[in-house]
């Protein structure tokens, strides 16, 4: 039972990060119908900015803030300088451009920082607190949960309670009508990209210290897990992203704890197949499954 | 494969595509004539080029099977696949197992390779059918997610079942040398090119016929508008499964040819990166045309070569070299990819057709 | 239609004629008097394939530049028999498909004399047959796989690293003699590295001598389930057959689970500078870690080899950060120059391979090199090191053993110092 509890908590804390990253994918998908394959590379770039700032100032929190800012900026830049220029008639074109961005960003990071792992700091201890002889969550895990929770709540608030959130939703769902009503559709799209990229940067800041360290490829695997999570939950659904992220985190933890790490990909495929065959638009798909 | 069955009647073909020259020839004959011409060209090239270029061309041929298959699926039928690297792996591993089984049975003559290739294609057809049935229910990013998972799972299986697939290290593939009749100093790479080119050309002729057949038209109808296609009496799901199976068979053949060329298979060669690069290759080549697939295959092979040449081009201080080596070519490739997609969304083939059209408009005399 | 056919006929005829002319006179016997590929009176061109980019490049991307730096040093000192060594480093990103391409390019197009220190088991295994068919010397492969030691099948291929089973036996021998009665557990990479190392451990401790076994895959960077299982099993000693990233990850994960076993780490994953860099502020967790090595310890500034290599690193490697990978790369370069010297002035591929087979090389390594006509594996042992006060130091004797059931013996030959000018002589 101890082991089950341990694996559950470990899986949830990993899953929270996948949820945040999946949320970033959902944001861009909702705003522009693009699966942003460059999300991982962009987030790593922001984390490198944090590394430089922390190294220069000695403050983790200044680095953390710098990463979020860099994430927001990078998202806006990518939208305005790259994605806006891409011909969106074929849905594949933005995908390929995003893959090109991945190559470019990772190569530039490799040139600037080298291809070695750099240490990534945590603001709180990662040593687990022990309750009744069982190691449960660490302060850092609690920080992760809290951060992801706050970000999730903030996004919900922005989209449902603020005028700008309403305009963003309108611009995404009915761009022509919104334009007629005086909404700056392009600006809303850029804002969406910036927000998503900021959330992605946050997720990178949270997850990189728990992995091998900072590296141009540090988010590759996280991207795959988070994309899976987003697809599971349904790309149109923010709650779906959270549920999908936590689910994938738990699955990874249980499989590698009880069965062996080499079975993880197979388990993920099995989960994905089961869910998608029952619900082809993901768990939280809107009722109208097929758009004509 | 059902490709040869459905040769369209000439009048129909002309009606569909009146701009096509040589319209009085049956499609199959025209494709065979083109294939024969290309075969002759390859034969000539195999003597003119050095061994390394021969090997590169052979690798292009192997990748061309996969990119052509992906073009049929994504370009013609409109289904996205991030998992074609895994299908290539299926073909490659099946070929390796078949060749090893044959060698164990003492059947080492070169002709048995054909049997192994057929087995490899059949195995991939089975896998392709399974994935295809699931894929036919899914659209857009959901299909991408599923095929991405397939791309990750298949190489990982070689580690899970390392008793059969020998884990990360992979399997050796015994391949017979060139027939003795060609002379004792016949370069092995030239023989490899002949084998790969022969297999690929057969595959392309079948695909080209399929594209011009009623299946090809059904593919395009489904891609352009599923509802309209259904109203026109096309069974959408079945059409998509057929496209997936055909595409998988081609990818399987490509993977098997790669295994023959490398004389080994290992999971690292068929990772997610390969699947993503295949997709990049077909889009950059020009989605929707088999000629575009050829450009894509060339690109896949030329990339490491360019990397190598670029690295040799500069003489840098050791400190700078350590940072730039490897990274610089990738950065250039990434930037080129972005610029090409923005400037020429039709890819290389789209650009070429645009050029040709412009030239023809200017000098219409050359047409008669 | 008629004009199309006629045009086609003309093209076909032309092609056939061209083809016939091309076919005649091709494929000549290269002949015995032909020059040796990659060797002129002033130059020897050697090639290697390495991961310079991609996830596997961390650490490894420093090896080839270090080797090149040593060659540049030798070149600056007059070269070998008047020839300068050119080292062609190509990036394969640890992708076996790319390795196929770039190695053929090196051999067929760049016409290198030999392939030196190609890195990686899956990558290099794929090109063994090609190199064999083309009779290219394939020296000092950078991996501890036993694939390289097949003199009958691949007579031109030689290893460098001690194989993983040898390492496993020596590590287990230390556990058995110095830490008797402790509960021993094992974490290994899920490939031949982990498997061979575990085989070596079990040869010494017996199959029931290992209380818990776990594996990891490089595609999942969470080892908490495995480490949690060790803690639950009450492990006191954990033997790791891990790459550096996962050594650091395991140590860090154990610390946050409040689990403090004695770590015993195979050579590949025990380089202190690499581990400290990754752990950052948590590098203190590495105190007491026992590792295995067979080359001079990177931090031992009293060692004459380290002094030589540090000098070379400053002069020819742009003063790159000096760690175990740097030492490794330069040791490979030194051994290659030794072999070139032994092969003599009339350098051929045959004379080079013959020189390796003759064996008897003593260089920076503390353990014996095993090269002979029947043994193509590299180093046959190693010495244990411990991290104390933030420094990694050797302790105890050097051990040697084989990959079969032979005993683990002490190896007593004294290490040799480098020659005064740092370049081996004939």
**Rg of chain C:** 24 Å
Report the structural category of chain B.
Answer: mainly alpha
Mean pLDDT level of chain B: 85
Quote the average pLDDT of chain C. 88
CATH topology of chain B: ABC transporter involved in vitamin B12 uptake, BtuC
Count helical runs of chain C: 13
Strand line-up of the largest beta sheet of chain C: 7-6-8-9-10-11-12-13
- Count the DSSP helices of chain B: 16
How far is it from the N-terminal to the C-terminal residue of chain B, by CA? 37 Å
CATH architecture grouping of the largest domain in chain C: 3-Layer(aba) Sandwich
Oligomer: heterotrimer
CATH architecture of chain B: Orthogonal Bundle
Number of domains of chain C: 2
* Strand percentage of chain C: 15-25%
Low-confidence blocks of residues of chain B: 1-22
Q: Which geometry of chain B do the CA atoms define?
A: globular
How helical, in percent, are the residues of chain C?
A: 25-40%
What is the name of the CATH class of the largest domain in chain C? Alpha Beta
Number of domains of chain B: 1
The secondary-structure class of chain C comes to alpha/beta
Q: What would you say this structure looks like, in words?
A:
The complex is a heterotrimer of chains A (292), B (368) and C (426). Chain A has helices at residues 2-32, 39-57, 60-82, 92-113, 139-161, 163-173, 175-180, 185-207, 220-233, 238-259, 264-278; strands at residues 130-131, 134-135. With 292 residues, chain A is mainly α. Chain A has a single domain, classed as ABC transporter involved in vitamin B12 uptake, BtuC (Orthogonal Bundle). Chain A has a two-stranded antiparallel ribbon with strand order 1-2. The N and C termini of chain A lie far apart (50 Å). In chain A, 57% of the residues are buried. By secondary structure, chain B is mainly α. Chain B is 74% helix and 1% strand. Chain B has a two-stranded antiparallel sheet with strand order 1-2. Residues 1-22 of chain B have low confidence and may be disordered. Chain C is an alpha/beta fold and 426 residues long. In chain C, 38% of the residues lie in helices and 17% in strands. Chain C contains 13 helices and 13 strands. Chain C has helices at residues 2-23, 63-76, 96-109, 121-125, 128-133, 164-178, 192-205, 224-232, 244-256, 272-279, 304-316, 324-343, 349-358, and strands spanning 43-50, 84-91, 114-116, 138-141, 157-159, 184-189, 210-216, 237-241, 262-265, 290-293, 381-388, 391-400, 409-411. The radius of gyration of chain C is 24 Å and the shape is globular. At the B-C interface, helix 2, helix 3, helix 6, helix 11 and helix 13 of B face helix 1, helix 2, strand 2, helix 3 and helix 4 of C.
